[in-house]
Amino acid sequence: MRARDGPRYRTGDVMGLVSIFASLVLLAGQAAATSDGRGGEEAYDARIQDARASMMADPQAALDAALAAYQAAGSPQSAAYRERTARARWLEAESLMRLGRSAEAAVALEYAVEALGVDAAPSQLRGDIVMSRARIAMLQPDFEAALAAFVAARDMFQLLDSPRGEAMALQGLGGIYTEARQYDEALNFYSRAMDRHRDSSLDLSALNNRANVYRQLNQFEDALSDYRAALDVALALNSPILNARILSNISALHVLRGDLEEADHALERAREQAPDLADSDWSRTMSGVEAMIASGRGDLLGARAALEQTFAGLNLDATPQPYLEFHELAREVFDRLGEPAAALAHFQAFKRLDDQSRDIAASATSAVVAAEYNFAEQNFQLQQLRAERLEQDVRTAAIAERARLTTFSGILALIVGLLILAYSRYRVERARKLALIDALYRDRDTRLPTSEALVHQVRQDKEAGRSTYALAIKVHRYGQLQSALGTVSAAGLLPILSERLWAHYRRDQIGVIAPGTLCLILDGGHGGAVDHQTLNADIARIKNLLSDAVEVAGIMIDIHLTFGAAANTAGTLSVGDFRHALAAVTKAEQERHLFVIHDPVGQHASLQNLTILSRLGSSLSSGDIKLHYQPKLNLHTGRFDSAEALMRWTDPSHGYISPDVYIPLCEETGQIRKLTEWSLKQALNDQANFRDAGYPIAIAVNISGALCNDRNFVNFAAKIVKQSSGGLIFEVTESAIMHDMEAALESFETWRQSGAKISIDDYGTGQSSLAYLKRIPADELKLDRAFVKDLHTQSRDRLLVKSTIDLAHHLGLKLTTEGIEDEETLKIVRLLGADHAQGYGLCRPVQSINLVGFLQRHDGVVPDSADRKAPHCPELSIV
Ligand code: C2E
Ligand code: CA
Ligand code: CA
Questions:
Q1: Ligand 1 contact, 658 CB (< 6 A)
Q2: By three-state DSSP, how is residue 463 classified?
Q3: Strand-strand pairing, 698-702 and 655-657
């Protein structure tokens, strides 16, 4: 899961403010749009003015006016006809959008484009149409289309020298980055928009949007100051509805800040502004904020009364996004009032909307990533073109040089007098060739070797018979550094880092492949794969070498690095592999991984290629497949009283293969039963050894959903359970259970009767509701690590986890949190009431012999940080 979900209450800003601001933007743009009415076309102009004027307050009237304008567009033969039709259609689309009829709006807009002609010259109207297209795409939501349209609009307005249009497009881009939860970028766009152009309506939306982002980031004071500035603007515009909306936002913010007096005060002012808004979404929002305040005061009955107003007459299965936080609040209030049925209904609504909002964020993120990737790709292709041209030039120069040399020797024999001239020409050619070689092999900014130079080096390595891989090392947020320090100063960073590396690596191993990105050629790639152990060791070493802050232009800069690795199936690296390493590091940075390994086209395919699976049997007997164990901490007793068995396969020629890759393949090809039976027997053996060493712990084994309706397997597993010394826990994923619920129920009963416990794995990623789970005979929920990852920064995640824990307990289930990576998260889940915790921060999966050592060291104590570093197959992601 990405960095996400700000604080708890995200009151109706999305639903309410955006559309209102869109109207304002449009209205204020009025002056810019030309009206070219003359004589008999006055009717048309009047309708257009009507449409604009009523757009904000009465979109239906605007729609009627736009349609009338369309009728009055004049004769199709007239020169202005196309533009008139296009403008009328555009206003029709704008009003339909405000009426919530975005599909029809999209059609009207296409007519507008057609009327204008697809290849019409850039104009204000065209820019406006592209902006509308972007906003409709946002509503649908189709972020990829929206992003493309905002970028096109920005470029067009730049061309037209219309800073206002540019600012609007920049705000739109900020909106997409907000949806993608890339808040730093979003803030950047809003600020750039305000730098570009300022007027009250644009300020209003930029300030409000920026405040929303600050609120997501828990920067409440910044949010407050922006909301207040927005309120000043709204007051000056004299719009009671806007004032009321911003005041409600301010009130909700005060609740978050814990200042209930101020919250009351702001809400009162909001109500005074718009006393006659009863039964609108906005009055519901105000009631919701009132409930927040009451709940903050511990006045549960008051909160309930306000919530009843918020949800009066609404179908809880169909509420839109802005109600998400109110459902969460209602869940808590009803729970505390001892009304579980109402609490559950709101929890379900909350979960539905939360899933939806994760989907929205995911699709916005993929749009953003795709766009950025395209950009990186384009840049790379440009570099390639430049390199190819230079290479060509070098070749030509070399020929010319040879020719000169021949001329030179010939002339030497004949006319000594011409010697000096020829020689100087030769020198000129030579200098030219050297300059070209320099341009090809040295990066212009840093003077470090380029990827072409590295490739040259690799060719020599091949002759020496070494196998290598490319490791891209990117300075985190280099782009921002460039804008802060300037390109030239920022470029000073890489040579300093390279120098540190030169102490340990040969100079010709190191080059620069993109701004802010070094590349190292390292030993250890083979057969298209990167050897994980080597990679881990290399990354650890490099991080260590480069960890000290660097001084550039008098400023100390902390160095954070991201890595991307690529090897080549053919055995030698080529420029393409540097590109893959660059793509991998870009992905790693975007997804906030420490590193990503590029999967050469074939890795997946070759894995699917059954040759690997055919090795499964022999790998089991040869010991290439092992079980590792990751201990689980009992948060009540402070002891590690169980461990999860995780499969580890290190193939001699493919290196480490992730279970995420071969488990699904085994499921598809029917080999999963053999594999799981092996792991049950192995776990049983290991468990006996742990017991003999004095640790009779329970072992959790992962069971594929496919096996839950395989009678033979179910009976086999039940027999194993009976032989177990410390108890077995079967972890089955939520989605597997949902897939065939009846079969799962029956198998679970059988297993439980023989003494196993059932744990529902990856809880929260599937579509199940807790109501469903009530029917499942399970003992434990294992909350997916996606929900745990950002607990210490995201208060909304804390709420989600807390509600899940409470409801699990209501249903008599224990709750385990996985993915605990640091002490702070551990503290939080303990505080929230989780029963068990598991994660790299406590202990990585270790070999069975090492588990006993670990248990001895931590008998009754929570581990110190030493074990966190125990080297082991880290998270990996494949491009
Ligand atoms: P899972 O059941 O959700 O297992 C937990 C995964 O999270 C493991 O990945 C573990 O190494 C990783 N993990 C543990 N703590 C942390 C942490 O703090 N941070 C992060 N980022 N990750 C953590 P692994 O071993 O790669 O296993 C992946 C999946 O493969 C497992 O997910 C499980 O679904 C499946 N799997 C593994 N072993 C077996 C097996 O023996 N049988 C079956 N059927 N599936 C298995
Ligand atoms: Ca598991
Ligand atoms: Ca899991």
A1: yes
A2: helix
A3: unpaired
187, 206 contact by CB (below 8 A): no
pLDDT at 392 over 70: no
Ligand number nearest CA of 838 is: 1
* Nearest ligand, measured from the Cα of 736: 1
Q: What is the mean pLDDT of the chain?
A: 81
Give the separation between CA 387 and CA 385, rounded to whole angstroms: 5
* 782 backbone φψ class: left, alpha, beta (φ>0; ψ -120 to 50): beta
Checking if the pLDDT of 756 tops 70, the result is yes
What 3-state class would DSSP assign to 18? helix
Residues 6+ apart with CB under 8 A from 260: 254, 293, 296, 297
Q: Is the pLDDT of residue 506 over 90?
A: no
The whole-number pLDDT of residue 471 equals: 93
Residue owning the nearest CA to atom 41 of ligand 1: 647
pLDDT number for residue 423:
62
679 or 659: which leads in pLDDT: 679
Ligand having the closest approach to the CA of 660: 1
Whether the per-residue pLDDT at 672 is higher than 80: the answer is yes
Amino acid at 567: A
Give the residue, 735 or 426, on which the prediction is more confident: 735
- Tell how strand 698-702 and strand 728-733 pair up: parallel
> What local confidence, expressed as pLDDT, does residue 394 receive?
67
Q: Is the C-beta atom of 779 inside 6 A of ligand 1? A: no
- Identify the pLDDT of residue 100: 83
| C-alpha span between 794 and 776 (Å, rounded) | 31
Q: Is the CB of 7 under 6 A from ligand 1?
A: no
Is the predicted pLDDT of residue 51 greater than 80, yes or no?
Answer: yes
Nearest residue (by CA) to ligand 1, atom 7, is 819
Q: Which atom of ligand 1 is nearest to the CA of 731?
A: 2
Residue type, 430: R
- The answer, yes or no, to whether any atom of ligand 1 lies below 6 A from the CB of 589, is no
What average pLDDT does the segment 146-165 reach?
86
Predicted local confidence at residue 459, as pLDDT: 64
CB 493 within 8 A of CB 556: no
Place of tokens 């950009």: 375
Report the range of poorest mean pLDDT among 247-261, 568-582, 683-697: 568-582
Closest ligand relative to 837 C-alpha? 1
Q: Give the Cα separation of 672 and 666 in Å (integer).
A: 5
Residue 449 — very low, low, confident or very high, per pLDDT cuts 50/70/90? confident
Going from the Cα of 782 to the center of ligand 3, the distance in angstroms, rounded, reads: 6
C-beta of 527 in contact with ligand 1 (< 6 A): no
Selected residue with higher pLDDT from 8 and 730: 730
The whole-angstrom separation of Cα 460 and Cα 466 is 9
The protein residue whose alpha carbon is closest to atom 23 in ligand 1 is 819
Cβ neighbours of residue 335 under 8 Å, at least 6 residues apart? Answer: 343, 806
Report the SS3 class of residue 633: strand
Q: At what angle do helices 81-98 and 102-116 cross, to 10 degrees?
A: 170
Question: What's the CA-to-centroid distance between 586 and ligand 2, angstroms?
Answer: 29
The C-alpha atoms of residue 563 and residue 541 are separated, in whole angstroms, by 12
The reply to whether ligand 1 has any atom less than 6 angstroms from the CB of 660 is yes
pTM (two decimals): 0.46
How far is the C-alpha of 863 from the C-alpha of 868, rounded, in Å? 9
Q: How far is Cα 76 from Cα 55, in angstroms, rounded to an integer?
A: 27
Nearest Cα residue to 175 out of 157, 153, 156: 153
